[in-house]
Amino acid sequence: MIRSYTETLPDNFGGLPQENSNYPSARAVIFPVPLERTTTYMSGTRNGPAAIIAASRNMETYDEELGCEIYKKCGIATLRPIDTQEGTLEHVLAELHTAELGLLNDGKFPVALGGEHSLTAPLVAAAAKKFSGLTVLQIDAHADLREAYQGNAASHASVMRRVVEICPAVQVGIRSISVEEAEAIPTLRTKIYWGKDIVRAPLETWIPRVVADLSEHVYLTVDLDGFDPAYVPATGTPEPGGLDWVQVTSLIRAVAAKKRIVAMDVVELLPQPGDHASDFLAAKLIYKTLGYIFAR
Question: Taking the model in full, what pTM does it have?
Fold first, then answer.
């Protein structure tokens, strides 16, 4: 049969054609992780990866800042989502670690789409095996440094406590912590840039300091509630006083220019009916970050 109609875009990140989205040649790989096991307030983060991919198919692929079509610089493959409902949380996290290590061993740049933030620790552990002297750059409203939450050491509220057991971290935009975390912070391998100190400060007063605190190899984790709810209301625990688009992208651009970002995740999108702006921002942030890394 000869096709005589216009087909829809491919169902992958960016709606990219086969030649720019096949795994063997792609340098970046989208890894959907619809994990939702320890959510404690609003639920629905398991729908985040699908919403980000759907929004990405409506982006312009030409980037006016970088002056190119980013996907042509790197190729972007999209994997099928991992099954996060089968087995225990520990089993799922172990599978994430194995999958991430496989992507890194294949020379790929993994982009994990969450899902709740608890997915980050096993991904960081995989990156730390591959890259010596790793540090983690976290953009987030919450410190996530509890030893455990509701008896669960793998909780989203404890994910950065697990991370700093693996390697040092730099946490940016933090504006919500517990008493337990406040008491523990001086003893932990982390440097915090509090939201109250940077949201109204000129970029040049804090971004170079963040970059200087990072090592050569950087894992980037972006909890979307790091943005102010005016920009991203679709999160499970929105916190006022957050960062804006220019602050976040300027920081990532500076880090990509001076350091080597080796992997990343974007987590905690909780899609809301009628709010496509949050989904689109997440997709655009990923695409823009790939541009800073591969098209600079």
Answer: 0.95
Q: Please report, for the chain, the start and end positions of each structural domain, with discontinuous segments joined by +.
A: 18-294
Cα gap 243→281, rounded to integer Å:
13
What would the mean pLDDT of 217-225 be, rounded to a whole number?
Answer: 98
pLDDT at site 176: 96
Q: What's the token pair of residue 136?
A: 């983690």
5-9, 39-43, 215-219, 291-295: the lowest-pLDDT one? 39-43
- Which residues lie across from 221 on neighbouring strands? 138, 265
CB-based contacts of 273-278 (< 8 A; 24+ apart in sequence)? 275/233, 275/234, 276/55, 278/224, 278/232, 278/233, 278/234, 278/235
Helix (H) or strand (E) holding 96: helix 89-105
pLDDT one-digit tens code per residue, 97-130: 999 999 999 999 999 999 888 999 999 999 999 9
What is the pairing mode between strands 109-114 and 28-33?
Answer: parallel
Distance CA 16, CA 19 (A): 8
What letter does residue 41 receive in the DSSP assignment? Answer: S
CA angle 63, 64, 67 (to 5 degrees): 80
pLDDT band at 157 (very low <50, low <70, confident <90, very high): confident
247: alpha, beta or left, given left = phi > 0 and alpha = psi -120 to 50?
Answer: alpha
Q: What superfamily would CATH give domain 18-294? A: Ureohydrolase domain (3.40.800.10)
| 46 burial type by CB count under 10 A (0-12 exposed, 13-18 middle, 19+ buried) | buried
Give the angle 164-170-176 at the CA atoms, nearest 5°.
90
Q: In this structure, what token pair is assigned to residue 113?
A: 């789409």
Q: pLDDT band for position 86 (50/70/90)? A: confident
Q: Are 221 and 248 in contact (CB under 8 A)?
A: no
